[in-house]
Amino acid sequence: DIQMTQSPSSLSASVGDRVTITCRASQGINNNLAWFQQKPGKAPKSLIYAASSLQSGVPSKFSGSGSGTDFTLTISSLQPEDFATYYCQQYKIYPITFGQGTRLEIK
Amino acid sequence: EVQVVESGGGLVQPGGSLRLSCAASGFTFSDHYMDWVRQAPGKGLEWVGRIRKKANSYTTEYAASVKGRFTISRDDSKNSLYLQMNSLKTEDTAVYYCVRVGSKCDLDHWGQGTLVTVSS
């Protein structure tokens, strides 16, 4: 199975900050990577697919990059509604696997 | 509006069975692969499995942790997805999400989830 490792596991930031979350795959996955946002008690929400393509309706403050094994999610100008847990996911090879999550908290 | 709504969760004893359903609306259900993803309390996301569409012979894929115990099926005439769970274990306790797979193989629409608790 492909292991997805996110860093950091948790992150404290302030409103207005720009943050970057990293996701590393244990083997190359081309650009078959997605990012999700999950708020407490809610279902995950798709943000980005194909490493850098924004889902419809997702604000451009979210951006993704990377290919192969190393990927990043950047969130600019943090707002209170952005504080949540973020997951990466590979869909290159079955079984589909997720990263362990990065909890973004308000400083 | 795309909607997927799960139902059928509840409390079941270890070794028991449960069938989850997912009702889809707002899109052409038969055109899409569909997935189940679960999340144990306080834990991360775990992919459970996938069913492809008719053009791909409704073939399925499963996570190793559920293979041989869980079965995914669909009824395109009812716009419905199912997850039959047998030989349930305490570690199967989780919120189970029904997820639409988009045209780019992305998990683009998620249901609100249904809680399955396996306990004696």
Structural overview:
By secondary structure, chain A is mainly β. Chain A has strands spanning 4-7, 10-13, 19-25, 33-38, 45-49, 53-54, 62-67, 70-75, 85-90, 97-98, 102-106. Chain B has 120 residues and is an all-beta fold. In chain B, strands 2, 4, 5, 6, 9, 10 and 11 form a 7-stranded mixed beta sheet that branches. A 4-stranded antiparallel beta sheet of chain B has the order 1-3-8-7, with no helix packed on it. In chain B, 40% of the residues are buried. The mean pLDDT of chain B is 98. The interface between A and B is medium-sized, with 25 and 23 residues.
Let me know the largest β-sheet of chain B: 7 strands, mixed
Radius of gyration of chain A: 13 Å
Listing every helix as H and every strand as E from the N terminus to the C terminus, the arrangement of chain A reads EEEEEEEEEEE
Q: pLDDT below 50 for ≥5 consecutive residues: which ranges of chain B?
A: none
Keywords:
heterodimer; A: 107 residues; mainly beta; B: four-stranded antiparallel β-sheet; 11 strands; 0% helix; globular
Task: Please give a quick description of this structure.
The complex is a heterodimer of chains A (107) and B (120). Chain A is mostly beta strands and 107 residues long.
Itemize the secondary structure elements and their pairings.
The complex is a heterodimer of chains A (107) and B (120).
Chain A lengths: L3 E4 L2 E4 L5 E7 L7 E6 L6 E5 L3 E2 L7 E6 L2 E6 L9 E6 L6 E2 L3 E5 L1
Parallel strand pairs in A: 2-11
Antiparallel strand pairs in A: 1-3, 3-8, 4-5, 4-9, 5-6, 7-8, 9-10, 9-11
Chain B lengths: L2 E5 L2 E3 L5 E8 L8 E6 L5 E7 L8 E3 L7 E6 L4 E6 L8 E8 L5 E4 L3 E5 L2
